[in-house]
Write a structure and sequence with these properties.
- The chain is built from 7 helices and 13 strands.
- With about 270 residues, it is an alpha+beta fold.
- Strands 1, 2, 3, 5, 6, 7, 10 and 11 form an 8-stranded mixed β-sheet that branches. The chain has a 5-stranded mixed β-sheet with strand order 4-13-12-8-9, with no helix packed on it.
- Helix 1 packs across helix 3.
- The radius of gyration is 17 Å and the shape is globular.
Length: about 270
C-alpha cells in the first residue's frame, strides 16, 4: 500500500501531465508495491482536485472488457475511469491538435441512465435503470508512458487505472434506443479511418454482453463508496482494439441500424 503522500503526488503529477501534454514515467516502476486499491485512490485524488476546480462528473467508462485486452495485460478484470464535463465532444467535431498527447479511439455502446445504480445489481436492474443506449466513440489518451524507454517495461493495470483508465473523451451518436430494442451482443460497428475500413467488432466482445459491464461497474464502484447516478453516461467497453489517431485522422463508426458516430483530429 502506498502512503497518502505518494498517492497525492502521483495524482498531481498526472494532472500536470494532462495540462502540459508531457508524459510521466510508469508508476508501477516507481512504486513496485502499488496495488489496485492504490491505483483507484490515485484516480480518486485526481477526481477531488478536478471537482475543486469546477469540473463535473458526467459519467464513467469501463475498460479492458475484452479477452484479448485482458490477456495483453495479464489480468482477468476490467477497469474503470471517470468522464468529466470537458471530455464531452460533439458528433462530427474536430478535436484540436493541442488537446491530447497520443489520442486513440475505440467503438462502444453508451448507456445513459435514468435511475442510480449502486453495489451489486442484476442485468435486469441495469436495463430498468437505463434511459437509452446509443453508439459512441471513446477517445483514449495516456498521461503515462506506454513503455519505459530504459527497461522496455510496458504499462500494467496499476498504471492505466491511476491514469483514469486512459480516458480522454466521449463522442455520443445522436441515435437513442431503448435498451431492449436491440440484442446488444449483436450490435457492432464498421470503423473507417480516413475512408479506409480498419476494424470491425460486435458487442459480444464486451464480457459476452455489454450490459454485464454495467453490472461489474456498479459493484466495483460500491466497493469504493461510489455509485452511478441518474443522468450519467456509461461507456460499456470497447469491442475493437484501439485505433491510433495522429493529426489529420478522420474516424467514422457505422453501427448499421443502431446508428453512427464520427470524430476528426486536427
Amino acid at each position: 500500500m502506498l502512503a497518502q503522500s505518494d498517492i497525492d503526488a502521483a495524482a498531481t503529477a498526472l494532472l500536470s501531465a494532462e495540462e502540459t501534454r508531457e508524459q510521466i514515467g510508469l508508476l508501477s516502476l516507481k512504486h513496485p508495491e502499488i496495488t489496485l486499491d492504490d491505483a483507484y485512490a490515485i484516480q480518486s485524488a485526481q477526481m477531488a482536485q478536478k471537482l475543486a476546480q469546477g469540473r463535473e462528473i458526467i459519467g464513467w467508462k469501463i475498460g479492458l472488457t475484452s479477452k484479448v485486452m485482458q490477456d495483453a495485460l495479464g489480468i482477468s478484470t476490467p477497469d474503470s475511469g471517470v468522464i468529466y464535463d470537458d471530455m464531452d465532444f460533439a458528433d462530427g467535431c474536430t478535436v484540436p491538435a493541442d488537446r491530447f498527447i497520443q489520442p486513440r479511439i475505440e467503438a462502444e455502446i453508451a448507456f445513459v441512465m435514468k435511475a442510480p445504480l449502486e453495489g451489486k445489481v442484476t442485468r435486469e436492474d441495469v436495463l430498468a435503470a437505463t434511459d437509452f443506449v446509443a453508439p459512441a466513440i471513446e477517445i483514449l489518451d495516456t498521461r503515462i508512458l506506454r513503455a519505459d524507454p530504459e527497461t522496455g517495461k510496458t504499462r500494467v493495470i496499476f498504471d492505466t487505472v491511476s491514469d483514469n483508465a486512459a480516458n480522454g473523451g466521449i463522442v455520443l451518436g445522436p441515435q437513442k434506443h431503448a435498451p431492449e430494442a436491440f440484442d446488444l451482443r449483436w450490435v457492432g460497428a464498421i470503423l473507417t479511418k480516413n475512408d479506409e475500413v480498419v476494424s470491425t467488432g460486435l458487442g459480444a466482445a464486451v464480457l459476452n454482453d455489454p450490459v454485464m459491464g454495467i453490472v461489474w461497474l456498479s459493484e466495483r464502484m460500491g466497493q469504493y463508496g461510489q455509485r452511478i447516478e441518474a443522468g450519467q453516461v456509461v461507456l460499456a467497453g470497447s469491442f475493437i482494439a484501439p485505433i491510433e489517431c495522429p493529426s489529420g485522422t478522420k474516424i467514422e463508426a457505422d453501427y448499421g441500424p443502431f446508428g453512427s458516430v464520427s470524430v476528426n483530429f486536427e
